[in-house]
Amino acid sequence: MKQNRHVCPFNCYSNCSIISYVQDGKVQRISGDPLLHYTRGYLCQKVLSYLDVFYHPDRILSPLQQIPRGSGNWRVISWEEALGHIAGNIIKLTDDYGSFLPLCIIKNTGNLGLLHEAWNWFARSFAGGTSRISGTVCWNALVDAFYYTVGPCAPPPPEKMADSKLIFLWGVNPAWTSIHQMHYLEQARLHGATIVVIDPVLTVTAAKADIYIQISPGTDAEFALAMVYHLIQTSQIDVDFLQNKVEGWQEFYEYVTRLNPLELAAETGVPYKHIQRLADRYAAVPSAALWLGLGMQRYKNGGNNVRAILALTALTGHIQNQHLYSSNTYYGNLFCTEWDWMYSAAAIRKFPAYRLADSLQEATVPPIRTAIIAASNPLVQLSETTKLAQRLTKLDLVVVVGQFLSETARVADIFLPTTTWLEHWDVVPGYWHNWLGISEPAVQPRGQCLADIEIVTRLSTYLNALSPGICSFPVKTQEEWLQAVFTPDVLHSLQIKDYRELLLGPKEYKGLPQYITNNKFQTPSGKFVISTANLPVPQAARNSTAKAFPYRLLTPHVTSLLNSQFSNMAEGERACIIVNQQIAREKGLQSGKNVLLFNKLGEIKIKAFISNAVAPGVVYYYAGEGTEEGINKLIPSEPTDLGDCQCNDKGLALNDTFVDVAALVNFK
């Protein structure tokens, strides 16, 4: 059987390299690529079963038009009719409004392949600019916090975690969301490491840990500062490093020593003596590792939660050992995504992802009339989705690009079928390990499916046929686009001369700047930067909505899904909420019974289960096939404190959602 190489493009830590096996024009099976040393040839269950997705009977294989919108009455149309209709609509925008600003491109992280950025590149191909979504709802605050603190640099190879003697897993659940890293955690444990999990929920990872700290949600900064206070008071700090390599140390010292550690501990729900013991353990081990997940940064104070935790690594000097781990945008930024044919990014009208519904309403000069949505399912993934659906249905034209008729497709006029990673060329830079592979097509696209880059190319061709020169997007093959995005620096760091060498197997980046390179950090001052601004935001201020709606809603990732992707493969798993005994008693809830979950934005009916694995005052949402209405209708459009610098806009403070719950006796 013919073998082909691919890279998983989904929003996941592992960024796996994959081998497909093809016979008679059909993909027979897939396996992990053993040449990617990080994953060691293993794949998660989602990808192992991907052929079920690839050949799924519900996959859309031809362009569709829905008349009327929302009716479910779809008819097959040709690419010529679909693209002609879209191009004609875009041309009409200039006739009606004198600009392309009424066109909004909504492209998100459903596919991390670089060539799937084509829709954002398309937004830059019109004089005077278009409108587009900015930022994500995922990691903005964390990325900015790292950037301000240590500067732009490559993260350490996550395999190094196996060398640590003490590992903090803070707001991350790798047993579900980063399964390949569990191997290195177990290797560390075999060599005597202690694993500590800090999380509001007793996750599967927490259950496997040596020490589990059930922290009150959103109090990560208070917990870290209580540790810092104890380290200062007991002189367990690296004074020489702090005085010579840390910017802002003196101000931070004065700030921390004025705090009351008992009050900080009370906010976290963890006795101060336990925090002291953990701080002592952290300071005593020279090779302590710290992995910051995405959980603690999805609050209004999320960025400063991260910065407070990062300060710990400076106080003890642990940052010098490069054992600080997190998601990172550095690899993606190495590639070329700016070309002479693009119009200025300054002309783009940006709509923050965290408040897209309001942005669509507030845009009046000119208004948004057309939306193209790709690699995204905003009616499931963004905030205030009831309002967002209402805004989308008022537009003249909504186009959705995808493989299945998603929840968002229900409000679309036209659906354009796109290829999968088995059918096109692409490169996926990744954000965790330091390996890079390439995706080549294993088979011809199924039906009439086209790669996103091909759809954009054809659409630009239609536009220029109707109005010559109106769109600057160039005509290239997929392989020519790959040649264009690979920079000399990328090729040099991979020790290759051409991207096609990756067809022989993935390569490891070499020689990239680390946190400390040549005795300097990658910040403007060359020092580790600590800021006291907004550390910490008082808990009472953060929980101002809790008076009317007393419980905090947490919506972490689960192992069977990637956001809403793979939900049609969930094999009957239904969404539910989990609360502890305290809430159950207060509200008269019974485990396994249906409840009403609500706040000022709306309500959903959902089954509830009772478990003390969840912290008091927390409603934990477990995603499955979903509810008919969707949990995101309850999530307000609240921004995180950081995100503007590296992610173009602030993130969504998902974890600052407050709800109430009531028993439903007769609901089934």
The CATH superfamily label of the domain at 156-325 reads Dimethylsulfoxide Reductase, domain 2
The whole-angstrom Rg is 25 Å
Q: How many beta-strand elements?
A: 28
Tally of helical runs = 24
Beta content: 15-25%
CATH architecture of the domain at 156-325: 3-Layer(aba) Sandwich
The proportion of residues forming helix, as a percent range, comes to 25-40%
CATH class bucket of the domain at 156-325: Alpha Beta
Task: Quote the CATH topology of the domain at 156-325.
Answer: Dimethylsulfoxide Reductase, domain 2
Shape: globular
Which strand order do you get reading across the main beta sheet? 5-4-17-16-15-6-7-14
What's the quick description here?
By secondary structure, the chain is an alpha/beta fold.
SSE layout:
Layout: E1 2-7, E2 17-23, E3 26-32, H1 45-48, H2 50-54, E4 64-66, E5 74-76, H3 79-97, E6 103-107, H4 118-123, E7 131-134, H5 140-150, E8 166-170, H6 174-177, H7 181-190, E9 194-198, H8 204-208, E10 211-213, H9 220-233, H10 239-245, E11 246-247, H11 249-257, H12 261-268, H13 272-284, E12 288-292, H14 302-315, E13 324-325, H15 330-333, E14 349-352, H16 356-362, E15 370-374, H17 378-381, H18 385-393, E16 397-402, E17 414-417, E18 435-436, H19 452-466, H20 478-485, H21 488-494, E19 507-508, E20 516-517, E21 520-521, E22 528-529, H22 539-542, E23 551-554, E24 576-579, H23 581-587, E25 593-599, E26 602-610, E27 618-622, H24 644-647, E28 657-663
Parallel strand pairs: 6-7, 6-15, 7-14, 8-9, 8-12, 9-10, 11-22, 12-13, 15-16, 16-17, 23-27, 24-26
Antiparallel strand pairs: 1-2, 2-3, 4-5, 4-17, 18-19, 20-21, 23-28, 24-27, 25-26, 25-28
